[in-house]
Amino acid sequence: MENNYKMVAKTLYGFEPILAKELKNLGAIDVKEGVRNVSFIGDKGFMYKANLGLRTAIKILKPIQTFRIDSEEDLYKKIYAMDWPAYLENKGTLAIDATVHSSRFTHSKFIALKTKDAIVDLFRNTTGFRPSVDLDFPDLRINVHIEDTFCTISLDSSGQSLHKRGYKTATNIAPINEVLAAGMLLMSGWDGLSDFMDPMCGSGTILIEAAMIACNIPPNLNKKEFGFEKWKDWDVDLFEKIEASLLNKIRGFDHKIIGYDKAPSAIHKALDNIENANLTEFIQVEQQDFFQTEKNTEGHLHMVFNPPYGERLELLNLEEFYKDIGNTLKRNYPGTQAWFIVSNLEAIKNVGLRPSRKIKMFNGKLESRFLKYEIYEGTKKVHKMK
Predict the structure, then answer these.
(1) How far is it, in rounded angstroms, from Cα 271 to Cα 259?
(2) Which residues does the chain have with pLDDT short of 50?
(3) What is the pLDDT of residue 384?
(4) Domain named THUMP: which ranges (predicted)?
(5) Alpha-carbon distance 44 to 4, whole Å?
(6) Beta-bridge partners for 8
(7) What DSSP assignment string belongs to 267-285?
């Protein structure tokens, strides 16, 4: 227990409860939901496990210092006084990310610059050498979070955002973020116990995340590098042990995962990404126009998709498009639970079906709704009488 410490997992708006559940399932202690983040307690091995195994986390931060500040100069002095040689060499590289929610401090870039100056000056004044900035692959990525006058300095254990899983080399015009895709799937109750379909699959993100959930494959297995791999206390043996224990929990999958898209280019990209994720045996994709298809699987079908939006819809009649989605589901997909995300909130009215759930979320910066439609076998009335 003495090796445990507090960590913070950052996530997307509305995903805090799912991330908290994921953390508890992995074995985290003292899990507490915040706004776009969940805090928890664990040890170094658990930090490795969280980075490898969490589907809805964007970053895993390790707070190392908290203090109050009343000016930029105060911030500089307190950062300068910290023991940075414990974490970084004098000729190493660093990057600073700052988030600021404060009336006194308003410019996150200036806060990041002040923090960098303090660390660099400390090394230069004490050793004659200074670390340099590397925004892409630094030896140490530092996170500064200011809430009013309360400042938290954390080490970023993830490095590049955890939504960059490492399997995606090809994307479409507006690819869905992997963390958003995984969160939507978990929110929809997808558990791998039925057939699954994404009828507008684009470059295959939802299909890949669905297969990884179904088979309990750690989502960040293909990630090129984590931030903690450059830390001074990096323990490769412990990491490999954690990785092996997660790999041991992978399970088989007895159903179908199917993707359709009418664009040949999207199908090629999806096939490339599925191959990169080593999931070819679990996912089949076909060039099909969803509106010309019908359900061809037995039993319950679980459907999650991200219809085209924004610029991708300029050539389409929005009203007709969403009306066709509703009609195709109603007529051709009995026994289906269909979920999709919509950022044009007017468009929902054209679907012609009443959603049984509407969940607010953000697709990038676009406020969206994640909608659930139950398409029964026969009419709803008949279904209830059975």
Answers:
(1) 10
(2) 380-386
(3) 43
(4) 46-157
(5) 8
(6) 39, 61
(7) HHHHHHHHHHTT-TTTEEE
Strand-pair partners of 156: 61
pLDDT recorded at residue 317: 79
Alpha-carbon dihedral sign for residues 181, 183, 184, 190: positive
Whose structure tokens read 């479409």? 172
Q: Which residues contact 297 (CB under 8 A, 6 or more apart)?
A: 195, 197, 256, 258
What pLDDT was estimated at residue 319?
84
Q: How far apart, in whole angstroms, are the C-alpha atoms of residue 172 and residue 193?
A: 29
Label the pairing between strands 283-287 and 257-261.
parallel
* Contact between 115 and 96 (Cβ < 8 Å): yes
For position 136, what pLDDT does the model report?
A: 86
Q: d(Cα 325, Cα 336) in Å, to the nearest integer?
A: 13
Note the pLDDT of residue 385: 39
Cβ-based neighbour number of residue 262 at 10 Å? 14
Contact 151, 66 (CB under 8 A): yes
Query: CA 13 → CA 2, 16, 213, 248, 360, distances in Å?
Result: 33, 7, 21, 32, 9
Residue by residue, DSSP assigns 49-80 as HHHHH-SS-SEEEEEEEEEE-SSHHHHHHHHH
**Cβ contact 301:194 at 8 Å:** yes
Residue corresponding to tokens 């969490």: 54
Q: Which one, of 199, 231, 156, 200, lies nearest residue 333 by Cα?
A: 199
DSSP three-state, residue 148: coil
Where are the strands (E) in the chain, listed by range? 5-10, 29-33, 37-42, 59-68, 93-101, 132-133, 140-147, 150-156, 195-198, 257-261, 283-287, 301-305, 336-342, 357-363, 366-375
For the beta carbon of residue 127, count every other beta carbon within 10 angstroms: 12
User: Which is nearest to 335 in space by CA: 297, 371, 381?
Assistant: 297
